[in-house]
Amino acid sequence: xxxxxxxxxxxxxxxxxxxxxxxxxxxxxxxxxxxxxxxxxxxxxxxxxxxxxxxxxxxxxxxxxxxxxxxxxxxxxxxxxxxxxxxxxxxxxxxxxxxxxxxxxxxxxxxxxxxxxxxxxxxxxxxxxxxxxxxxxxxxxxxxxxxxxxxxxxxxxxxxxxxxxxxxxxxxxxxxxxxxxxxxxxxxxxxxxxxxxxxxxxxxxxxxxxxxxxxxxxxxxxxxxxxxxxxxxxxxxxxxxxxxxxxxxxxxxxxxxxxxxxxxxxx
Length: 267
Known about the structure:
Elements: E1 3-7, E2 10-15, H1 17-25, E3 34-37, E4 44-45, H2 46-50, H3 92-117, H4 120-139, H5 145-154, H6 158-182, H7 186-191, E5 193-197, H8 206-225, H9 227-236, H10 245-250, E6 252-256
Antiparallel strand pairs: 1-2, 1-3, 3-4, 5-6
Helix pairs in contact: 3-6, 4-5, 8-9
């Protein structure tokens, strides 16, 4: 028997009957938590299923066979749609917040590397270059933005460029490792969401989660096509199952991580 549990509009499972009874005995779950398994018509509190006891005997239950999705009072259906392995879709708000955290983290790392290696003299020189190039940009009918950018970069000390490049590369490698090993970036870990395969509900492959989803669309696609691809990708986030363009290409979903954790104990 596969039993799903839910708490605070978040779903976990499936668990075996023995695991559920063990969690009840160890008070890892409470009688107020909701439960559902095949053969039940609706989600019910564990206490109602167990008759107030800390042991569940499903043989005493007689309910109509059906397979309903998880239901709650949440207004966003993405919070409550039941997927493979008892997962629920991550909301648009959580996904955008996770992306914002990753963006701010990247800029923080760049800022630390930049200002920790720049001297006052270097900052003064760079400010003078920036002021000059900004004046040229505003006074020219057809400014050469590429040349202006090259001039500004040339004014940055080599040590700073190396430090910034190393910091970005290090953070990128960490994010790639997190995505490939657990389907999460730093932002997704903090927001308790993760990337999974759309069919199996398990961790996606490196090719899909990293190469197709991140490198091909986000890094290569955004830089070649520009902001248009970014906004198209963002619009897709508000479609069915909150699937962005890179989700569809990589055949992935972003779901909430389980809130009920089972601590396996050796008997």
